[in-house]
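Morning!

This is the sequence you dropped in the shared folder:
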Amino acid sequence: MQTDFCIMTKKGLLIVFMMLMLTACSEYQQLLKSNDPELKYEKALMYFNDAQYVKAQTLLDEVTAYYRGTERSQDVLAYLARCYMGQKDYQSASEYYQAYIRNYPKGKYIVEARFQVGHCYYLDAPDARLDQEVTKKGIEFFTQFVEFYPESPYAEQAYKEMGELYDKLAEKEYYSAKLYYNLGTYLGNNYLSAEIVAKNALKNYPTNKYLEEFNWIILQSKYQQTINSLEDKKLERARETEDEYYSFIAEFPDSKHRAAAERIGKDVKAMLE
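The structure's back. C-alpha cells below.
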C-alpha cells in the first residue's frame, strides 16, 4: 500500500509539474502575441531576474523599436547586453554594450558598459597559441576604463583581468621564443631569434609571469651562440654569456634552472681562462 501511495504521489507531482510547464509556455506564447509593450518589458525583466535570458532577450528585442528615443531605451539596451552575458554570448554582449556607449556616453549604465566591453573580450580571449587580436582589444578597453574611472568598484577587477591579458600576450611570445630555441641552428641562427624575441617580450611586458623563463631562454641562447661561434668571436660571446649568467643568478637565486645555469657559468669561465 505504501509503495502504491508513493508511486501515485510521484505521478501526481509529475502531472502538476507538466501542467505548470504548459501554463508557463502558454503564458509566454501569449506574451509574444501581445500588443502591450509595457507588459512585455515588465515580463522581460521578470524573466531576466529568473535567469531565463533567452525569453527575456526575445521580449526586449520586440519592444526595442517602441522605446527608441525614450528614457527607457537605454534600459532596454543595457538589459539586452546583460541577457547576452547571461547566455555567455560575449561577442553579442560586447556589441550591445558598445552600442550603449555610442548612444549614451553619459548614461546611467555607462560605467558598467565600459567595464563589460573589456570583460567580454577577456572572457572571449583565445588560447595563447592563437591570434591575439581579441586579447589586445580587451587591454585597450580596460586601459580606457581605468583612466576614466580609477575609483570605480570595477577598477580592481579591470586591473586584474588586464594583467592576465598581458600575461597571455607574453605567453604567446614565450612559445615563439621556445620554438626558435628548439630549432637551434636549423636553416640559420635561431638562437639569436630566440634571444631577440625574449628580450622584446621583457621590454613590452616587464611585469609578466614569464620573466624567469624569458631570462633563462636569453642565457641559454647566448650560451649556444658561444659554443657554436667561430674562434674569433668565441671569447667576446663567452664574456656576454658570463655577464648574462651573473644577472640571471642575481635576479633568480632560487630558480628551478639554477643547477643548469651554474653549469653554463662554469663552462664559460673555463673558456675565458
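Headline: DSSP finds twelve helices and no strands in the chain.

More detail when I'm at my desk.
O.
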